[in-house]
């Protein structure tokens, strides 16, 4: 006789977390915030040319369905009734751009990923059209004109992909960031799928007015984007539609947040001045600025933090965005082959104990905040015959921490009140060497949540709190307390400052490597004469010999 299904303490809420490297589906108890089960699928990234980064939208969608089905099977195995899942939230990699055919449901081109650099010449041409005394793009969107955001990726597709051009001409094309593609597909696709996005994702397109919370005609005209292909913009917490297939058919999708906004919610940074740093593929520091837009004077972005209900107020954030964090560890694994799993980097770094003067600037996609310098490329410098893979692993972790200090310093200058500690989350926070390095380099305590899946938690909270769902209270007195682990600085501030100053010298050396033409064509350009011990990452192995990378004496 089959064992009876057991109910969890409270209603359950699921969360799709669609990231750059992987997709996850997680199920939480809405009363305790306990994570009950999850499943993860790693994704393929395609690099058709140097600086180009693409993903298959169908692979992304299939990974979501697989994660949902496997998680439901795991719940069934422990006798948890999936009928208790009352809502689903979606969190996603932001800016990544998809265009698909609304009649067939087929993508018209690969997803162009947020890290992609092919649009640099597009950016340079557009920047010449912005009046020097009236940067209406930044004043309306809070964003600098950059390859990072969706509008220029969409413009590139419209200029270069005949399938896209034809579909737009015939009224068949739909545009969206990853959240839009997933929600449209999961709510029926060609059979009545809901074409929508939320305010946080819309605010990363460079087509959205963050003051009026609407698509902006002047911006769309500037980028020459037809407005009829854009999704409807909703709040981050309301019922968008129902799942139309699979184990969770009929369950409402009622939460949607860009991944960094979801992490801000999951960290419960609901008060003005609260901040968090997420270590994922990139690194993203967000500070809640409440109901007012604060414009940075130090290279940060102004963005929509969340709007947790149709009739709820919008909240904004200052954001420091770093392109490469966890991605540098994947690069060590997949490109250099000095580790077999991402977890090994902590072991190598621990054995080294120091980088021995080796500095790594992982500017694989140029430099984001606070520089916004697309001509930069990755370098490793300070190499000697003594340098081996252990020191390079340590330098890679230090690079993540130095980049965080750069955006934290900018945040402190913009806000006027320095942060006294840093709340952190994301997969990389499981690396204790990284967390201790971060505390040492910032010289403030780093506070890590015991719940590393705060992005998923934020999406689940938004979904469960939606009107018509109401299984998750966001009232302060009802929010579950989460235990924290604290890392205190263990080195003198002067030592931290010396290492940081040397890092800044390396950053300056990384700039000016490529022109717009070379980044678009995939060719290398502008190599200056280099001082001894200074090497471009892409030719590093050839220059210093594989034996030193491998740690062979």
Automatic annotation (TrEMBL):
It is a single-pass membrane protein. GO terms for molecular function: ATP binding; glycerol kinase activity. PROSITE patterns: FGGY_KINASES_1, FGGY_KINASES_2. The keyword Mitochondrion applies. CDD domains: ASKHA_NBD_FGGY_GK1-3-like. Belongs to the FGGY kinase family. Pathway: Polyol metabolism; glycerol degradation via glycerol kinase pathway; sn-glycerol 3-phosphate from glycerol: step 1/1. It is found in: Cytoplasm; Mitochondrion outer membrane. Keywords: ATP-binding, Cytoplasm, Glycerol metabolism, Kinase, Membrane, Mitochondrion, Mitochondrion outer membrane, Nucleotide-binding, Transferase. GO terms for cellular component: mitochondrial outer membrane. GO terms for biological process: glycerol catabolic process; glycerol-3-phosphate biosynthetic process; triglyceride metabolic process. Residues 16-266 form the Carbohydrate kinase FGGY N-terminal domain. Residues 276-466 form the Carbohydrate kinase FGGY C-terminal domain. This is glycerol kinase. It comes from the Eukaryota. Its main location: cytoplasm. Its EC number is 2.7.1.30.
């Amino acid at each position: 006789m089959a064992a009876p299904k057991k109910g969890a303490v409270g209603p359950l809420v699921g969360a799709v977390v669609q990231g750059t490297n992987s997709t996850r589906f997680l199920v939480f108890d809405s009363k305790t915030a306990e994570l009950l089960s999850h499943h993860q699928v790693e994704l393929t990234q395609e690099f058709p040319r140097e600086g180009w980064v693409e993903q298959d939208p169908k692979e992304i969608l299939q990974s979501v369905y697989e994660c949902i089905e496997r998680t439901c099977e795991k719940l069934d195995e422990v006798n948890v009734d999936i009928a208790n899942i009352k809502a689903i939230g979606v969190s996603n990699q932001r800016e990544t751009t998809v265009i698909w055919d609304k009649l067939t449901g087929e993508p018209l081109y690969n997803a162009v990923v947020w890290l992609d650099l092919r649009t640099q010449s597009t950016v340079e041409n557009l920047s010449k059209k912005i009046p020097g005394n009236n940067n209406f793009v930044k004043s309306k969107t809070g964003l600098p004109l950059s390859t990072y955001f969706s509008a220029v990726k969409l413009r590139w597709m419209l200029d270069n992909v005949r399938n896209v051009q034809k579909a737009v001409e015939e009224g068949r094309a739909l545009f969206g960031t990853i959240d839009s593609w997933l929600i449209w597909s999961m709510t029926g696709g060609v059979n009545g799928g809901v074409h929508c996005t939320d305010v946080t994702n819309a605010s990363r397109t460079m087509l959205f007015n963050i003051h009026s919370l609407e698509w902006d005609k002047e911006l769309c005209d500037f980028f020459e984007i037809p407005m009829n292909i854009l999704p409807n913009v909703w709040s981050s917490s309301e019922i968008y539609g129902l799942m139309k297939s699979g184990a969770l058919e009929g369950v409402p999708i009622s939460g949607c947040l860009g991944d960094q906004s979801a992490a801000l919610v999951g960290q419960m940074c609901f008060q003005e001045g609260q901040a968090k740093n997420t270590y994922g593929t990139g690194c993203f520091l967000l500070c809640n600025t409440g109901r007012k837009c604060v414009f940075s004077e130090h290279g940060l972005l102004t963005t929509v933090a969340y709007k947790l209900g149709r009739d709820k107020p919008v909240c904004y954030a200052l954001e420091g965005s770093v392109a490469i964090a966890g991605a540098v560890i994947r690069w060590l694994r997949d490109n250099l082959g000095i580790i077999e799993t991402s977890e090994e980097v902590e072991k190598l770094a621990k054995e080294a104990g120091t980088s021995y003067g080796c500095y790594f600037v992982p500017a694989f996609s140029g430099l984001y905040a606070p520089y916004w310098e697309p001509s930069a490329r990755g370098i490793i410098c300070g190499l000697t015959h003594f340098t081996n893979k252990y020191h390079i692993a340590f330098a890679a972790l230090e690079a993540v921490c130095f980049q965080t200090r750069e955006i934290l310093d900018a945040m402190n200058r913009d806000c006027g009140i320095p942060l006294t500690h840093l709340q952190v989350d994301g997969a990389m926070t499981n690396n204790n060497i990284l967390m201790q390095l971060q505390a040492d380099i910032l010289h403030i305590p780093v506070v890590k949540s015991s719940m590393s899946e705060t992005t998923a938690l934020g999406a689940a909270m938004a979904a469960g709190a939606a009107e018509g769902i109401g299984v998750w209270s966001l009232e302060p007195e009802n929010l579950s307390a989460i235990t924290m682990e604290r890392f205190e600085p263990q080195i003198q501030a002067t030592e931290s400052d010396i290492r940081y100053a040397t890092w800044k010298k390396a950053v300056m050396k990384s700039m000016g490597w490529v022109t717009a033409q070379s980044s678009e064509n995939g060719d290398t350009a502008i190599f200056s004469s280099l001082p001894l011990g200074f090497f471009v990452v892409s030719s590093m192995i050839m220059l210093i010999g594989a034996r030193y990378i491998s740690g062979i004496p």
